[in-house]
Structures are given as structure tokens and as C-alpha cells.
Amino acid sequence: MNAPTSTPVLLDGHGRRIDYLRLSVTDRCDLRCSYCMPKGFKGFEEPANWLTFDEIERVVAAFARLGVRRLRLTGGEPLLRRDLPLLAARLGALPGVDDLSLSTNATRLDRHAAALRAAGVRRINVSLDSLQAERIAAIAGRDVLGEVLAGLDAACAQGFAPIKLNMVVQAGVNDDEIEAMVAFCIERGFILRLIETMPVGDSGRASRHVDLQQVIAALAQRFDLAPSARELGGGPARYWQSRDGGFTLGAITPISQHFCATCNRVRLSVDGTLYLCLGQDDKLELRPLLRGGIDDAGLEAALRQAIERKPERHEFREKPGKIVRFMSATGG
Ligand code: SAM
Ligand code: SF4
Question: Which of 80, 105, 252 to mutate to test the pocket of ligand 2 (most atoms within 8 A of CB)?
């Protein structure tokens, strides 16, 4: 990966530096996590409307010229997009892109870990809400614990670092399993990130979120954790570390303590919609521009203007009914 000679900086209208793009390469998924997508949902984007690899590369290259440095491949389930490692290699080789990561449910990670690593993906986040097969089946629609564990083994064998486990904590569903998950992560050397459910789509609203502030305080005492200033991916998570440095806990708390003042990201969905905030409807439709023949200077100008109007903050608490699209469509 090559660094440009001078470092451009992309600022939004609130003075925040935008250097991170989350790229949803598909809105499809082989699971139906209850807080993300409704059971039996079939309203997916038509393939004709998916950005092609060439179109994605053009948008990412333009963002990189403007100052975006970090790129995360997500979805839906990104490993459902055919030839994802080829796309990863193309994006990772773009001048200015110096951090390429992946979010996955890991059901297919076993098969793709080596190719992804060879393509330049370094960091990986895996969703895992429980270590109990029946619970996973209840949350995600089917029992995939074996596949996920095999995917994690493959990721370890390939040397991905760090490997973070994302656990969406739901009241009465898996909140009794947090300590077991901590023990698992200590044993395997994974970072555990606890997430409050966001009211995104009907599925997100149907889930009862747990206020993580008290949970973190109790875990900090139980496992002797201290707040950490470590930069671990430039995202919204706050981190705590054990005194011996062997275990790191993260928390993403959009409801109990939002982090909009330091937001550094925008999201591109598979149909070419640039979402400026996870919790607002502000967007830029890029597909018509790309297919209408816009040149690179025009594309950069359109991206700059969109970033300029990035909303100041989400309103998950004040207007929980606002966002009707699912997390899988936006690229969580
Ligand atoms: N399929 C991949 C996965 O599950 O990691 C990537 C896409 S998924 C939408 C990305 C992340 O969003 C996952 O960690 C998932 O748990 C989280 N997520 C989905 N719906 C959510 C919601 N309503 N609130 C909070 N997190 C959510
Ligand atoms: Fe699929 Fe990820 Fe959404 Fe679960 S959270 S349904 S794995 S996109």
C-alpha cells in the first residue's frame, strides 16, 4: 500500500475529519440476526443495481485522493459477494488506502481466510453473540457455531490481528453470557466488543438494548480492567484493558453514550448510495453519477459537497422510529 506524497484532509461541515469508509459489498446475508434483518426478508437489491468492482474502485480511489485512509468491507455478509478477495486486493493497492479490514459473520471465513489475508486484509471483526448453539440458532436463524469457530481458527492461523468479536447484547437473550464470552476471548486472545442495539429498521427496534455502562463497570471490577487510551481501529468503541495487557474489552454505546462528536466515517451501500450518518437519511446517490459518465474531478466535487452536509449526530434516543432501512442494507 502506497502513501501519497502530501496528506489530504477531508473535513465535514462540523470540522470532523472523515478518513474512514465502510463499504457494503452486498445487502444479502446467509443469516437473519433478529436485530438486523426480518425473518424471511427477500427485498434485496437487484444485481443490475450493484456497483461493479470497477465502480467501487473508482469511488474508493476518489475518496482516497480526498483523504480517506481506512476502508472496511462489510454488508450484509461480505463473503457472499463473489470474488471478494479480488476486490480487496484492488482496493488495498490504491494509493492512500493504508488500512483494510473486514466485518463478517464468519460462516464462510474458513474458506476465504487465506485469500483475504493474501489480498491485504489485516484486521477482522467477527459477529458472535453467544457460545451456545441453540441461542445462536434463535438469534441468527440457524446454528452456525461450528462454522464460526472454524472461521475463527482459520483467521488465527492466517495471522489476522487484531481479531475482534462483536457481541450485540440483548436483554433476556444473551446478557447472562457476557462473562463466558470474556473468558473465551481471554483464552483465544480476541478483543471482545459489546454493542448496544440500535433502533435501525423494525428489526433493530424490536430488540431490547442493554445499557452497557453498568455492565462495563461490573466487568472492569471483576476482571481488573482499566480504561485504555489505545487506538484500536479509529472507530467509536471505547476500550478497557487488563493490567497484564492480555485482555481488551471494547464497548459501542450509541444509546447510552453517543460518540457523534468524533465521528470519522461514511457508508457506501451496494447500490451506490453514500449514507452520511447511520442514524439519518442524508445521502448521495452515486450510481447515476457513475453510470452517467461523471469524470474524476466531478466525482471528487460531489463527494466533497456530500461530506460537507454530514449530519451532526444521530437521534436514536429522540426519534427511534426514524430509520426504516435495515442495518444490513446500510452496511453496519
Ligand atoms: N454480516 C457481517 C457481520 O455480521 O459482522 C457484517 C455486517 S453486520 C450489519 C455489521 C455489524 O452490525 C455486526 O457486528 C452486527 O452485530 C451489527 N448490527 C446489526 N444490526 C444491529 C443493530 N440493530 N444494532 C447494533 N448493531 C447491529
Ligand atoms: Fe447478517 Fe451480519 Fe445482519 Fe447478522 S448482523 S443478519 S450476519 S448482516
Answer: 105
Ligand at shortest distance from the CA of 103: 1
Per the model's pLDDT, the better-predicted residue between 226 and 232 turns out to be: 226
Closest CA to 82 of 230, 305, 270: 270
Pairing of strands 163-169, 191-196: parallel
In the reported structure, the alpha carbon of residue 106 is separated from the centroid of ligand 1 by a whole-number distance in angstroms of: 12
Are the CB atoms for 20 and 70 separated by under 8 Å?
A: yes
Q: Which CATH number characterizes residue 43's domain?
A: 3.20.20.70
Tell me how far apart the terminal alpha carbons of the chain are, to the nearest angstrom.
25
Distances, alpha carbon 234 to alpha carbons 20, 21, 145, in Å = 8, 12, 29
Q: Considering only CA atoms, which residue is closest to atom 4 of ligand 2?
A: 33
Q: 7 alpha carbon to ligand 1 midpoint, in Å?
A: 32
**Is 1 inside any structural domain?**
no
pLDDT in tens, 28-50: 999 999 999 888 888 899 999 99
Ligand nearest to the CA of 316: 1
Distance of CA 24 from the midpoint of ligand 2 (Å): 12
pLDDT tens digit string along 134-161? Answer: 999 999 999 999 999 999 999 999 999 9
d(CA 255, CA 272): 28
Encode pLDDT of 67-87 as tens digits. 999 999 999 999 999 999 999
Do the beta carbons of residue 70 and residue 19 sit within 8 Å? yes
Q: Which domain holds residue 234?
A: 20-330
pTM: 0.93
- Domain total in the chain: 1
**pLDDT, tens only, 207-216:** 677 889 999 9
Q: Is residue 132 part of a domain?
A: yes
